Amino acid sequence: MSAGNGSVDVGEVADVGRDSGGERTDGAAGMLRIGEVAKRTGLTTRTLRYWEEQGLLSPSDHRLSGERLYTPVDVARVTRIRDLQELLGFSLAEVRVVLDTDDVAVLDRVRSEFHGADVSRDRRRQLLDEAIEANDQLLQRLDDTLARIHAFRDERADKAVTLRKRRGDL
């Protein structure tokens, strides 16, 4: 976990899918169990399961026993959901809107491919170009949203002045 901000570095995810002899179990290499994701992100397993029920999160794999397994991209999504709720105060419905935007999907896809094995240097450059463009578009949308939020706040502040003046006139 990165120091200080509670975010998870996707490079930190340990290889938990091996038995005591080092043999791979059932597709779990480089993945975390739900409890490990909860611990790293400061959430509860109940919250992660709820987000899954709501369609915000989906484990990338399951063990034969049914245990949920998460990739680094999944953990980054968990962190993004948490941050949208805690830092920006978004409801789960608002979080869904943000996560369902094409730009976020592009960034998730690019991140996953970029960290994949055997990606050439030229392909990494292409992926970074895609990520830069998608991120710039997302920033523009966020700026537009923030401008609307500020305009709404200013309207409410003006209304508060009007209401206080009316009350004072009574």
Distance between the termini: 57 Å
Number of domains: 2
Helix content: 55-70%
Helix count equals 6
Helix and strand arrangement:
Layout: E1 32-33, H1 34-41, H2 45-53, E2 61-62, E3 68-70, H3 72-86, H4 92-99, H5 102-114, H6 121-169
Antiparallel strand pairs: 1-3, 2-3
Helix pairs in contact: 5-6
Question: What's a quick, concise take on this entry?
Answer:
With 170 residues, the protein is mostly helical.
Fill in the keyword field for this structure:
60% helix; 3 strands; 170 residues; 4% strand; disordered N terminus; mainly alpha; three-stranded antiparallel β-sheet; 2 domains; Multidrug-efflux Transporter Regulator, Chain: A, Domain 2
Textual characterization of the structure:
This protein is mainly alpha-helical. The chain folds into 2 domains: 1-90, Multidrug-efflux Transporter Regulator, Chain: A, Domain 2 (Orthogonal Bundle); 101-170. The protein has 6 helices and 3 strands. A 3-stranded antiparallel β-sheet has the order 1-3-2. A hairpin with a 5-residue loop joins strand 2 and strand 3. Helix 5 (102-114) packs antiparallel against helix 6 (121-169). The radius of gyration is 21 Å and the shape is flat. The model is unreliable at 1-27 (pLDDT under 50).
